[in-house]
Amino acid sequence: MRTKKLSIIFSLIIIVLLFFISVIVINILNIGKKEVKVARKFIEELSENSIIKENNDLEKEIIKEEILNKKSNRNSKIKYSVIVGKYAVDIDKDYNILGFSNKNINEVSLKSNEISEDDAIYLAKSYLVKITQEDFKFKEIRNQEGIDSSVYNVIFYKYREGYPYYYQEINTLINKNTGELEGYSNYPVTDVNYIDDINITEKEANNIIKENFKMLKLDIIITEEPILCYVNISDKEMVLAYVFNIGINSENNKDNCISLVRADTGEIINYNLEAVAIE
């Protein structure tokens, strides 16, 4: 009787162990597929929302290319880059979408009937509303000098608590002919300590800038109204600072630089004077 009871207990233990081993094996096998599923779903949603051009062969292309073209990038936040049809989708270690791009973008031709910059900004905003729940605001259209590009590179500020990040941006590529979204990137800001104190007014920051350049014996013009932004003071720390666009008159030449004044202490934390000769 005791032997029979032990046999039953032993059998139950074996069954339980086999169950857990099966679960572990299934999870291991699925790890390599999760990023593919995430990328596939993202591209399908873009297509369904008319953000990218519909492709009747999309499912076929995904099945054909998803495994062969998967790659890992250890030198950035990108953990996986999965090819879905003609699109490369970048994913981080937590399976968040960091961005995507048309890998055939160099083949996109530029025609005479291109859309305007205002239209590109409008379209980029309408796409972002569907892609991200983050707050954003138009920053600029950034063009490379000397390059006749087939896309508008439309840049947006990311926001936190009503204040923009100055360097962390949302980047979109809008096809100049079709208005289609050809690329997008939006890297999350994580593990950062924020310094939110505002002890310096905009007027005080303005005076600090003027006094600083006066000490440097430089004639300046503040070309735009300053903006209060989050800027990095280290890899893991951000502070609110006033960002000034400065025009500098030097030896009959005009140069530009950015000056940043901390809103908590009034300290100037960064300025770019490489192009200016200081005696």
UniProtKB/TrEMBL annotation:
Organism, as annotated: Clostridium gallinarum
This protein's UniProt keywords: Membrane, Transmembrane, Transmembrane helix
Superkingdom of the organism of origin: Bacteria
Protein name as catalogued: PepSY domain-containing protein
Transmembrane segments: 6-31
